[in-house]
Each structure stands twice: as C-alpha cells, then as structure tokens.
Design a protein that fits this description.
- With about 525 residues, this protein is of the alpha/beta class.
- The chain is about 40% helix and about 20% strand.
- Helix 2 packs antiparallel against helix 4, helix 3 runs antiparallel to helix 6 and helix 4 runs parallel beside helix 5.
- The longest helix is centred in the first third of the chain and has 26 residues.
- It starts with 5 loop residues before the first strand and ends with a strand.
- The mean pLDDT is about 95.
Length: about 525
Amino acid sequence: MEVAQILIDGKWRKSEGEATFQASNPATGETLATLFPISDWSDCEIALSSAAHAAVQLRELAPEQLAAFLDIYASNIESASVAIVEAAGEETGLPVSPRLKDVELPRTTNQLRQAAAAAREESWKRPILDLERNIRSCFAPIGPVIVFGPNNFPLAFNGISGGDFAAAIAAGNPVIAKAHPLHPNTSRLLAEEARKAAIETGLPSGAVQMIYHISNENGLRMVSDPRVGAVGFTGSRAAGLSLRRAAEDAGKPIYLEMSSINPVIFLPGALAEDEERLARELADSCLAGAGQFCTSPNLILLWEGPKAESLLSSVAATFSERAPQPLLSIAGRQHLQAGVSALVDAGARLLTGGQVIEGSGYRYANTLLRATGKQFLARNHELQREVFGNVTMVVTIEGVEELESILELLEGNLTGTIYSAKSGVDDQLYGKIEPLLRQKVGRLLNDKMPTGVAVSPAMNHGGPFPATSHPGFTSVGIPAALTRFAVLQCYDGVREDRLPPILRNTIHNPDTWRSIDGGWVKG
C-alpha cells in the first residue's frame, strides 16, 4: 500500500522512515485506509537544514509578501473546504456542520487573515528610537519554529494552519509543523494548500514544512536542536513538560498550553435568580465537543443548599439524557476512565456516568461527580486533576472562608468564571473572591461559560502554570501572539542606511516610541 508523503523543502517527498501508522474514525472505531510515515531523524535533519536556510531568506522579505501568503492560504482553505472538513470529520468524529464547516474553518481563515494584517502593520515589532543617544530597538524573527498541534482542533490549532503557525509566519519565521497523528489526512490537505500559497507568493522552499509523526526521542532532539528558534506546543502536561526540559536545557524558548480545569463559581444570588438557566448553560458547556475543549469547565464551585441540589439534579439529568459524543481516540477514553477512577479514589462521588459506552466508536458516559469543600481541601492535588473529556466535578462549599481556602490552593488555569446576581446582592462576596481567582487564571469571565475563545486582539488564551509554561504570553490574540516567536534586537550607533526600515528616521510608524527633547512620544 502506498504511503503518504511528507512536505519537506517545498516538495512532497517519500519519508526516510520505514514505520507507518493509520488514523481511525472515532465515531465508528474503523481504521482508515491511508498509511502515513513515522519520520526518522534523517527527515528531521533535512527539514531543520531547510528551515535554517529559509530563515535567512525570510529576513529579507517585505512584510507584504508574508501577508500575501497568509491571505492566499486562507482563500485556498476556503476553496478546498469541502474535502478538508470531510477529512476532519472522518478523523475526529466531530460533526462537519456546524462544528467544522461553520465554526472552526471560518475561525481558522480568520486567524490567518488577522496574522496577515499584523504582518503588514508591524506593531508587534514595538520599535523604540532613542534619537538623542542613537539607540534603537525592535522585535525581529527568532528563527525556525516547530509547532506541535493538538488533537482536539484539527483546523484552528493544527500545526500547519492554526494560531501558532499563523503567528510564527507573520513574525517572519519558517515553520516545521508536527501534525497530530489523530488527523494526518486533514493535515495533508491543509499542507497542500499552504504549499500552493507559498509557491504563488515566492516564499523560500523551507518556509513551510510538515511531518506527520516522530518518535519521542526525535521530538526531544528536534526541540533542542541549535537551528531551532522557538517551539509552540498544545497538548498534555506530561508531553509538554518532557519537551520543555529538553528545550530549556538547550536554551530554546518553548511555549506550552497544557492542563486546565477552568473553575466556574456560582454565587448564591445568581442561583436564586435563575438556577434553571444556569443549569442549562453549565450542561451545554461541559458536554460541548464531548468536553474535549481546553476551556471546558471541569470544576464547579457553589454554596451548599436547596438551590445547589436543584442545579445538581438538573445537570445530572441532562448528562444522563444526552447521547455521549465520540471521543477523539481510544487512548483518550482510557485516560478519561483512569481519571474518573482517580477522582473517585480521592473521595469524589459519582452522580451519573462513570463507565465506557460499549459498541462502535470511542464513547464514555457523560459523567458528573461531586465532593465537599472539606474533601477538596484535604485532597486538593488529587481532586483538581484534569480529566480531558465529558467529565465534570461539582464541589459544594459551606461559606466564603472555605471558598477562599480552595482558591488559594488552585493551580493555574486558562480561565476562571464567576456568576453573580444582577441585583448586586453578591457584590460583596465577589469583591472578596475575585482577587484570589484573578491571580490563578489567564482569562476572568463574568456570567458566561468559558468554552468560547474569541479571535480578538484582546484575547488571552494563556495563564499561570500548568495551564501554560509562561503566564506572560497568549496563543490566541494577534498581534500579541507573535511576540512568542520574536527576538529583541538593539542597534547602538548604527548608521541610518544599515538599520531595519522600521527603525529609520524616515519611517513614521504610529506605534514607534521616539525620544524628543528629553521626553518620549509615540508616532
């Protein structure tokens, strides 16, 4: 059987690796026909050498050329959308419509176009001109970027089309995409459209490359290679921390998105006002995409009492009634089962679910657990374990002091949500707990579920460890996301004609800081 080719140095070529793998359809459990290669180090070596050569060439390109590539790539994806979303649906079990066709694909092309705009206007470079001392600085491309895409967003976070890819290219870096092995054919189709756009816009041959799968050993070797500028990774905490150790030992910046349980707090007044609506919102958010969102609410905190019991009863009923959606893989189902068992062993009690669904495909019963605040405080490490899938745990608390103690023990998260009464009766409570939650999350929400992540310049899709490896950066939100793949460069006394264009006196960028008459002005 013919084996799919990898995209290296601008060409589709046979992998040097002899091992292969096949994806499966999570909705049916069927193994899909196409064989994909597991690359050995010789493939990685060629890709790294090509990317290093391309990095030098990309530094000479005008921002407009990078922007044109991103714009054309976005249009190419739209033109090939039927084949792309069909492949993604087959490999992930996610519904073609509305999830892939109507939501995720437009999000993907929107990100690419926002990155194109950022490349053109260059504010991410943050130019500063000290004219009195003739010292100038700006951000510049860091060099070849390796992007490890996750399993749960085959388009919008794919290593060859997602936010990390778009940000790295817009900042002027070549990208080596490590596709996720759960959706290799989707990645192949996207890579073909990227290659067409790269050829049309004259990008260097090593600017956009992709391999499907590599051994753990070669993954560690790649992120620590001297030719690498930076690494972007979205995935599990175990894999991310392993890569981080290798990258940091080699002095390479690596940006990880890993583990988050996204606490949601219902204050008493909010439950009293509209408990039925809140129960619906919570169930919808928890079960969206079979709970396989990095922002899925896995920890719910609410005051003990009749309203809490009513909400729990409603959510448990919804969990029981709704048919479980396919999980992304059989391994994911195994990890989910292990996680539920660990939560029960730590003292949580099952309200509904907690078992594998037999039959075709990879499904697990929608699962709701509960624990008390005292139990959480006694076993906080075990009870804030992330269980990636359609599993949520509710913790009932006795009062604000107990909640404050819980928040102080929380690990870092991508999001944190507080629902409070519109009447204002919860405002005093809010004022006590908000500062504690604020320090533990990248994005604080009021009165809305955290699962949606808008592609907005103001968005922070990051947070304190272990949500990410660095609390100062975001993987969503352009132009801020570009600075992960940039290096700060300073020019001291360098002649005008030798400076990058953005640092010359004749270039008037509205985002440039200039020293004039002992003060600083922008523009």
